[in-house]
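User: Some background: our group keeps a shared notebook of sequences we're curious about, and every so often someone picks one and asks for a predicted structure to add to the entry. Today it's my turn. The entry only has the sequence so far, pasted here. Could you supply the structure so I can complete it?
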Amino acid sequence: MYSRFQIARKYADFYLHASDGKGHGVHSPFVFDFIIHVLNSRNKNPAFPIIENYRKALLKDERIITVEDFGAGSTLTEGTKRRVSDIARHSLKRRKYARLLHRIASYYQCRNIVEMGTSLGTTTAYIAASPVVPQVITMEGATAIAGIANKFFVENKFNNIRLIEGDFAQTIPQVLQSVNQIDMLFVDGNHRKEPTLAYFEAFLKNATDYSIFIFDDIHWSTGMEQAWKHIQDHEAVTMTIDLFFIGIVLFRKEFLVKQHFSLRY
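Assistant: Of course. Here's the predicted structure to add to the notebook entry:
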C-alpha cells in the first residue's frame, strides 16, 4: 500500500496528464457521451438524503465489533476488534463516487449488478436506488459488518438488494450460478493484485459485450497498479477509463481499436 504522500504525488501526476473531464479534446464518441451524461450529470434521487444520514450516523457510531479478516480473500484469520466509526471512515466510498456508480447503473440500464465488498452498505444502497435496477447482489465476508448493512437495507426497504455473506472463494461460484450475465460489476473487496485478477477472470465468464466492470483503488499500491495494467492489456477488454480512484472496464466490440482514457473527476 502506498503512503498518503505517495498517493498524493501520483494523483498530482495523474491530474497533469489526464483529460479535463469536460469532454475537451476527447475524440471517442462513447467517452464524450459518458462525460456529458454520466460523469458530469447531477441527478437527484429521494434515497440520497437517507443514505447520507446513514453515513453520518456510521461516522458517529462508537460500537466495537469483531471483524473477520479473510486475508487474500480465501483464508480466514483471527478476528479483530474495530470501531464502526473507524470502519466507516476508512472503507466507505466518497459520496461523489457512490453517486457516479448510481448514474452508471441508471444510464446504461444495468439490470444484473454484482458488488464485491458491501462494507457498511452505502455504495450498495446508492446503486440499488436506481429505478432501473431490479437487483443488486452484494458480497461481504465479515459477519458483523454485513449485519449492520443488512439492517439498514431492511429498515429502509431496499428490497432489491441481495446480500451474500461469506468468504469470496466460496460465494463467487454461488453468484455465478445465479446470474447468467453481469451488466455491472463493482470490485471493492480485496485490494491485492492476485485476488483482483482472480475476480476479474471469474466474472469475465458471465460478461457480455455491454458489461461494465469497475475496480476500486486501482492506484492504491504497486500490486493494484499491476493488476490494472494486466486488465487493460487483456484481449477481451476494448476500452478502459481511469478516474484514478476507480477504473472502468468495457468490452464493446464496436470499439475497433483498444483505447485507454484518463479523466479528471
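Suggested note for the entry: Strands lie at 64-69, 77-83, 112-116, 135-140, 161-165, 182-187, 207-216, 239-242, 246-250, 259-262. The two ends are 22 Å apart (CA to CA).
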